[in-house]
Every structure is written in C-alpha cells, then in structure tokens.
Amino acid sequence: MPELPEVETVVRRLRLPLTGRKIRSVKILSRSVLQGPPSAFLRQVTGSIIREIRRKGKFILFVLDPPGTMILHLKMTGQVFIEPQSAAVDRHSHLLFRFDDSDIQLRYRDVRKFGFFQYEPADRPESLSGLRRIGPDPFETTCQKFTDLIQSKRRNIKSFLLDQTMISGLGNIYVDEALFQSGLHPLTQTGVLSKSQIQNLFRIIKKILKRAITAQGSTLRDYRKPDGTSGGFQNYHQVYGRTAEPCPICGFLIKKIRVAGRGTHFCPSCQKLGPSAFPKNPFLRRKER
Predict the structure, then answer these.
(1) Nearest to 278, CA basis, from 184, 187, 199, 174
(2) CA angle at 276 for the pair 270 and 281, rounded to the nearest 5°
(3) Angle between the 195-214 and 172-182 helix axes, to the nearest 10 degrees?
(4) Which tens digits make up the pLDDT trace of 114-146?
(5) N or C, where is the chain less crowded by C-beta within 10 Å?
(6) Coil, helix or strand for 120?
(7) Which residues pair with 78 in a beta bridge?
(8) Which of 187, 190, 161, 156 is nearest to 173 (CA)?
(9) Please, are residues 26 and 97 in contact by the beta-carbon 8 Å criterion?
(10) Which residues have a catalytic role annotated?
C-alpha cells in the first residue's frame, strides 16, 4: 500500500497540471471504486474546479469549488495517471476525468479495486467524519507530543506506528526502516522505551520520510508516479524486503516475522529485544551514543 512518501509524491505531481482546472466530465467504467451512488458522484463533481490538492495521512484530497472535497484512497494497487485523451484505456482503468481547455485526462487504475473515491460536501476535509479519527502525520506533530503519546500506550512499537489513529502515513516499509535505523526490535513494548529512544525514533522517522519523498517513493510492485515512472527509494532500503540477506551494518542475516499481521523485517543482531537505551548502530547521531 502506498505510504506517506508515495502519496505525497502523487499529490505534488498532480498539483501543477490539475489545480485550477474545471472537471468537464467523468466517465465511470467501474462502479465498485466509488463510495456512494455513481449518479450522485457525477452530479457533485462534474463542473467543479479543483482549487487545491493535498494529503491527509494516506488520503488524497481534491478541494473543489463549489465547496466540496473529492477523497481518494489508493489502498493496495490504486494508481492515478495523467495521460492524453488519445491514449488507449486499459482494462484496469475505472474512472476517467476530462477537463476544460485541456487534452489530458486523470485516470484511476486499480487491479484489485480496493481503492475508492468519495465525495463529501465540505471544503474543510479535516472535519469530515471519515478523516476525524486519523492521527497527525510525523510532519504535523512535535517530538514532545509523539513522546507523550507513545508513553501513554502499552503495545509493541511496530503495531503502534502502523496504527493510523495514533500517527498517520506510516506503513510496513517505513516502519521497518525506521525501527532498524533506531536499533529497536519491532516487538519492543512502548512501556520500556526511554524518552531518548522515543525522541531518536521520531527524528529518524522524519529523516527517512524526507529522503523517501526526495526519491519520490518506493516502487516495489504497483506504485507509480502520475507520469507512469517508478520511485527510487527502494534502492535505499536497509531491511525491508531483504529477508535472509546480510545486514548492511553487521552482516547478520535479515529475519522476517509477523507483527500486527504484517511481514516484518529486522536484524536480530542490531535490533535486540530489550530495554537497552541505544544499541550500537551507526545511524544514531554521535551526541546520542
């Protein structure tokens, strides 16, 4: 599933060609990717101007005029492309948006059709019922608030970071990478983490996300940018997807287990299960060793 860096990349790539454009028409090729009646969606969206495109957690929000918000969640295999109207439409494309004064289309493609579009008659997306339970992403909160939240919970750190009501935008890839660079075992209980460990984890999460955004996300299977090209951060993964390969730090073989129902990659040597404040890991900042 696309995570914060992938969704942020898509949002940034859509802003320039689409902001300010009027939606001339929407062709629905599959009703299953819409939440709500197709007739209502067409009536509400057609003729609207896209005033803003932004992200909330893993959601893409198209803020419209007249006031309203078109919400998109890509889920596992959703993709959005900017393509010429003359380009062939493949069998996995489900929605085609046409715009005034333009020969481009916004096309939604989804092999498994788990993703969805939804319209809400409000121009303040954060107030929408479906988004109110989503926690802040790492760029929307502070280190102190992040620390307080972790210290108030009793669960393993991986399941905490995956919980979108706690902290949004993170998924399997970037949680595994952040825990590795923090020297924390994914099953470490939040209650045994020191304040210094939590602060270090927060800094590393933001650092990894920034680098992944710069590389325009990780393409492992389905994720593509709106121009159809791949992201580049998969080339910098330290543990994710590297089961039985040597750890880039110590050479110990990367192990895969299941945590919170998700395949979880870590180094048993660098990420020992225990309360030690700072396992030896060269990713830690010098002054914190």
Answers:
(1) 184
(2) 35
(3) 130
(4) 999 999 987 666 666 668 889 999 999 999 999
(5) C
(6) strand
(7) 110
(8) 161
(9) yes
(10) 2-3, 58, 262
